[in-house]
Amino acid sequence: MHQIKAVFNGNFDYIENIKVSPFSRAYTFSDSVYEVIPFYNKKSISLESHIERLQRSVDALSINLDLKIVTTEINQLLSSSSFDNGYIYYQVTRGEDLIRSHMHSDQMKTETFGYITPCSFETKRLNVMICEDIRWGRCDIKSTSLLANVLNMNNAKLHDCDEVIMHKHGILTEAGASNLFFIKDNNVCTPALSNNILPGITRSILIDALSDKGIKVFEGDFNHLELKTATSAWLTSSTKGIAPIENIVNIDNSLSLDDSLYISCKEIFDSKFFG
Ligand code: PDD
Questions:
Q1: What's the pTM?
Q2: Quick one: pLDDT band at residue 254, thresholds 50, 70, 90?
Q3: How remote is the CA of residue 176 from the centroid of ligand 1, in Å?
Q4: The ligand 1 atom nearest the CA atom of 240
Q5: 148/245 same-domain check
C-alpha cells in the first residue's frame, strides 16, 4: 500500500487503485505533457503560472483540456493532503488510442492524471557534468518525452553527478530537469529563452524577484566554456528551488559558494518562493 493520493480522469483515489490502459498514448508515444507544482506551508507556489504553461503545452499538441477543472483538482489534492511541503505532478495525455498509429484519431478523450507527494526543498550542493544537448527541437513544451534527459542524467550519475548542464553546439541551454544561472564578471547570467529551453517558472520567479531589488539578469547566448571563469552557478526548479553547483566535474572551474552576489540572489529568491 503506497497510500499516495491521486486523481485519474477526474476520479480521486489512492494510486494503487488507478488502472491505465496500455493503449494510452502516454504509454505508446509519450503523447503527453505535464506540470510539477510546488507547495509550501500547504500553499501552492505560482499555480497560475503553471496553469498558463500547461495551457501553452496542450495548445502546442492540440489537446483539449478544461484548465478550470485541472485547477480545481490540483487544489483538491492539496486540501485533502496532510503534507505541508511538496509538489503535485499533473499529466495530460491525448488519450487512449486502440489503434497504435502515429496519426491519432480526432475523437480522443483527454486523459488526466495527478498525484501529490512530499518534498523537503532542502538546499543540496550539486556536482554536475557538462554534456551535449541531444534533445528535440521543442524543449519549450513541457513534454513527458524525456528520454534524452534520462540518458544524459544517468550517464552523469555514473560520474557521481546529480545533474547535467547541456549545450547545443557550444551554446548553453539548461540542465536535465532545471534551468541554469551563473555569475560572471559580477553579472547574473542565464541562457535566453528559445525553443531549446523550458521557460521555467522558478527561473521567472527569480528573475522578477531580482529585478524588484534592482539586480539585472543578463539573458543571452553563452558558450559552455564561459563557465570556466564563472564565480558561481546554480540551478532552479520547482522541486530544487535554488540549488548551488559545487563542482562541474569535466571542466576546470573555480566555482565558489561564498560569492556574495550568489548569496544575495538566494536570500532574495527564498523570501519570495517560500514567503
Ligand atoms: N522539471 N528545465 C527542465 C528540462 C525541467 O524539467 C524543469 C523542471 C525546469 C524548471 O522548470 P520549473 O522552474 O518550472 O520547475 C527546467 C520538473 C521539476 C520535473 O520534471 O520534475
A1: 0.97
A2: confident
A3: 8
A4: 18
A5: yes
